[in-house]
Amino acid sequence: MDKKILYIKKYQLVVVVDENNNLLLSYDSIDGLELTSEGILKEVNDELNLKISQYFKIDIEDYGVAVVCENMKLMEDKK
Fold first, then answer.
1. Which end of the chain, N or C, is less packed with Cβ atoms under 10 Å?
2. How confident is the model over 15-63, as pLDDT tens digits?
3. Burial class (CB in 10 A: 0-12, 13-18, 19+), 17
4. What is the mean pLDDT of residues 61-71?
5. Which domain holds residue 40?
6. Residue 65 and residue 23: Cα distance in Å, rounded?
7. What are 36-41's contacts with CB under 8 Å, separation 24+?
8. For position 71, what pLDDT does the model report?
């Protein structure tokens, strides 16, 4: 399987497309080299959505990932 990998330095995050399971996997990363915790990417902010969508040329919602407005989430958390 040919893996597609994106490293986003600002978030110290590595994103991998799992085409077999139609998922986006995320890894915490140290300098893009050491991958620590693995998880299924469930939600992202607008900036991450743009970076991931443009890099992989996909609609991340097709992979079960929700795009969350950070300002709305902050307001909900304060309730």
1. C
2. 999 989 999 999 988 765 667 778 999 999 999 999 999 999 999 999 9
3. buried
4. 88
5. 4-78
6. 8
7. 40/64, 41/15, 41/65
8. 63
Between CA 20 and CA 77 the distance in angstroms is 35
User: What's the chain's Rg over C-alpha atoms?
Assistant: 13
Alpha carbon dihedral 71, 47, 20, 27, in 10-degree steps, equals -90
Give 3-state DSSP helix, strand, coil % of the chain, rounded to 5: 35, 40, 30
The pTM for the full model equals: 0.78
Residues 6+ apart with CB under 8 A from 69: 45, 46
Q: Give strand pairing partners of 23.
A: 18
Total domain count, the chain: 1
